[in-house]
Design goal:
Length: 770
């Protein structure tokens, strides 16, 4: 390097003292006054000997933005030292972020805004329309957020506007002092620790901290801690254990940072050390999952006496995307992976991994962060009051027991009662079918033996009916299990359970079901039925359903035959009673002595006697039916001859056509949401009444009357009632022409009934009864 002259450089014509200059005795460079550098931005030095020019440009630095305001408030929440915190209120509000499944809600919101804008511009009153749209929006919001799928909850847990650890801390604490550093050279901003008070009680708070925007996320490393962060948390745990502060940890991380530098600095060792230490702390530890809890990065501050989860939080060993990439080689299968992993709060509580769920507002925690924070505060107070009654040793045992009870194992029992390893699906179905066929064959042999033992008694029929009933119940139980397996395979189990729970709640409140719920049930049914053939156990389920149908038909026929036999037996006993038999014989004798060949030739007095006796016999029949729990609606005459002798040859076709129209109209009315909800409620009440016969009968009768009245009103408005009345007049005219049925025709009808043919009967559906 060329040497420079030792002559002083005069800046601004002012001389400077020796202390104001920087000098170097090694290279002989003349120093420059620091004050001069502050005043001048360009310094030029010139060597006279070699014409060498050295130019240096000093940029004027930005003034340091000190965190203390000009007039600090000594009573600021959290104390004056909170001014040192890097977590400041955002200058601009966070931009709203709409998730894919929330788009229908955004469309409704847009409609509400448009209608309000139109009302302001035109001056017209759109209050009713706005109220309708807002009601529809609230209902849609409720329906959406009460039936979220696992992958949707994952997206809510990752929502950019979801409140972070420090958001909750500032909402729930009276004072909070952040503590920094791991005392090993670094302060990891991805984990925040500090001491805070809630209602006068002091706690040590430790939590993962994500950013609220891109700049903060980069600074916080997206909530993924390095080993320094876990060692900072460990230092604070020791500090809390020494001073007796209860520890509250907030989990919200996709996982520990897995870069090369973190691994070199002992990421695994830091996590393992935290796990070991937390099981030895003699102060209460409460962990709360406020977002996503990923793998060991979450568990490193999560070994607590209790772990609570926000309603839409998730906790997993591997993210759904990573799991899908491993199992199916594509992250697009993340929704299916999320269902299989069972990572939601409700599922983890059922598995005893989590100990409780903290509710969130509809729309997620970001919809109302303050309310969510207050729910967290309530949960902390409740659990810490419970832990406050335990000693240090009891807390250690409680913490150990929590993790020892996770998972279930059974000793001394085979994994499968039958060998099904490497069995193909068709082989499994064939095995199930063979088992069922064997049981059916045993049932048939049992019934035949009973009939051979007592062919003329009713014991064989009773036994066959009882065996059929047991077989049907067993099949129904098997079919329920098959449906459950199919729902699991299709990933609909959670939705079905949620719908069933909401349906039960609606029935428990004794209100008619909301049309939206009915529509959702119908859509779920359609989706289930459409995808049922894809289930791996579909063939087995189909075989059992076919068998159940056959058994049900056999049991119905058996029951009908038994009832018919019992009715005939009791009716015969009633008719054979002396007083009834004498009346019938007397009337028969008078008819025989009159010499008349038809009913029309009888005298009016004898006609009256015949009709009176007939009514008495019908009354006896009604008494018999009532004693069996049946009710006689009406006695229908055999119209075979009436129709045949009627001048109108198309009367039978008219009856059939009217019956078809009435049936179609009834089906149309029953499909309406109002009648559907009433029918569903009636089914539930009937099921309840079967378990508690003394209760609910009045409600069932009232519901039946309401349904009948609704159908009758619909039929009367459709004009079918007038058609029925006209046709009844035609039938009445035909009866007058043909006369009443003779005793012979009555006997023929009885024979037809015993044969089961029932031919020649023409009846019109009674709308008020249907």
């Amino acid at each position: 390097m060329a040497s420079m002259s030792h002559s002083s450089i005069a800046l601004g014509g002012a001389s400077a003292s020796a202390s104001d200059y920087l000098r170097s005795s090694a290279n002989g460079v003349t120093g420059v006054s620091l004050r001069a550098l502050g005043r001048r931005t360009m310094v030029t030095a010139t060597t006279r000997s070699s014409n060498l020019y050295v130019t240096a440009r000093l940029k004027k630095g930005k003034k340091f933005d000190h965190p203390w305001p000009a007039n600090p408030d000594p009573n600021v929440k959290g104390g004056v030292l909170s001014y040192l915190s890097e977590f400041k209120p955002l200058g601009n509000a966070q931009k709203p972020v709409t998730l894919d499944f929330e788009r229908p809600l955004v469309e409704l919101e847009k409609k509400i805004v448009d209608v309000r804008k139109m009302a302001e511009e035109t001056g017209l009153d759109f209050t009713e329309q706005i109220i309708t749209l807002e009601t529809k929006y609230r209902q849609a919001l409720k329906d959406l957020y009460t039936h979220l799928t696992p992958i949707q909850r994952v997206n809510i847990a990752r929502h950019p506007n979801r409140p972070t650890f420090l958001d909750h801390i500032h909402n729930i604490t009276d004072k909070f002092m952040e503590l920094h550093g791991d005392r090993a050279g670094y302060d990891d901003p991805a984990i925040v620790t500090g001491i805070g008070t809630i209602d006068g009680k002091r706690y040590m708070f430790i939590g993962h901290q994500k950013g609220r925007n891109t700049k903060e996320n980069i600074m916080r490393n997206f909530g993924m801690p390095t080993p320094h962060g876990y060692r900072k948390a460990l230092r604070m745990m020791y500090y809390a254990d020494h001073h007796g502060f209860p520890i509250v940890t907030f989990i919200d991380t996709p996982g520990a940072y897995a870069d090369l530098k973190s691994e070199e600095k002992g990421q695994g060792e830091a996590i393992a050390n935290n796990l070991r230490t937390m099981f030895g702390l003699k102060v209460p530890i409460l962990s709360i999952v406020i977002g996503e809890g990923g793998s060991g990065g979450a568990l490193a501050i999560g070994c607590a006496n209790k772990m609570l989860m926000l309603e839409n939080a998730v906790f997993y060993v591997a993210s759904p995307e990573a799991c899908a990439a491993i199992l199916w080689q594509t992250s697009k299968a993340a929704p299916e992976a999320a269902e299989k992993l069972r990572i939601t709060s409700k599922e983890l509580v059922n598995l005893n991994v989590a100990d409780g769920i903290i509710p969130e507002p509809l729309g997620g925690a970001h919809a109302d962060p303050s309310w969510t924070s207050q729910q967290i505060k309530i949960a902390i107070n409740e659990n810490m009051n419970e832990f406050g009654k335990m000693s240090g040793e009891e807390l250690l045992k409680h913490r150990m027991a929590k993790y020892r009870k996770i998972g279930v194992f059974i000793e001394g029992e085979p994994v499968e009662p039958e060998k099904k390893i490497n069995m193909k699906r068709r082989d499994a179905v064939a095995s199930t079918s063979r088992n069922l066929e064997g049981e059916v064959e045993k049932l048939r042999e049992q019934i035949l033996k009973a009939k051979e033992a007592s062919p003329e008694s009713d014991e064989g029929e009773e036994l066959s009916s009882q065996v059929l009933k047991e077989m049907i119940e067993k099949l129904k139980s098997d079919i329920d299990e098959e449906y459950t397996k199919a729902a699991k395979a299709m990933g609909l189990e959670e939705r079905l359970a949620a719908t069933r729970e909401e349906f039960s709640k609606a029935n428990a409140e004794e209100h008619l079901m909301h049309p939206v719920l009915i529509e959702r049930i119908e859509k779920l049914k359609e989706e289930f039925n459409a995808r049922l053939s894809e289930a791996p156990n579909y063939e087995s389920l189909k075989a059992k359903l076919d068998m159940l149908k056959d058994f049900s038909r056999a049991k119905a026929a058996s029951d009908a035959a038994s009832v018919k036999k019992e009715i005939n037996k009791r009716f015969q006993e009633a008719v054979e009673r002396p007083e009834v038999r004498e009346k019938v014989e007397a009337v028969k004798a008078e008819v025989a002595s009159s010499g008349a060949s038809s009913f029309e030739e009888l005298s009016d007095e004898l006609k009256e006697k015949v009709l009176k006796t007939k009514r008495e016999v019908e009354a006896e029949m009604a008494v018999v039916l009532k004693s069996m729990g049946l009710e006689l609606e009406a006695v229908k005459p055999n119209l075979k001859e009436v129709v045949a002798e009627s001048p109108n040859e198309n009367i039978q076709e008219k009856i059939e056509k009217l019956n078809r129209e009435i049936t179609e109209k009834i089906e149309e009315v029953v499909r309406t949401p109002e009648i559907k909800s009433m029918v569903e409620l009636l089914k539930v009440e009937t099921a309840k009444a079967s378990q508690m016969p003394d209760q609910g009968s009045q409600k069932i009768e009232a519901l039946e009357m309401q349904i009948k009245q609704k159908i009758a009103d619909a039929l009367s408005m459709s004009g079918l009632q007038e058609k029925q009345e006209e046709l009844e007049k035609e039938l009445a005219a035909a009866r007058e022409l043909a006369g009443e049925e003779s005793d012979e025709s009555v006997k023929e009808d009885d024979d037809d009934d015993e044969d089961g043919s029932g031919s020649g009967r023409s009846e019109i559906i009674n709308p008020s009864f249907a």
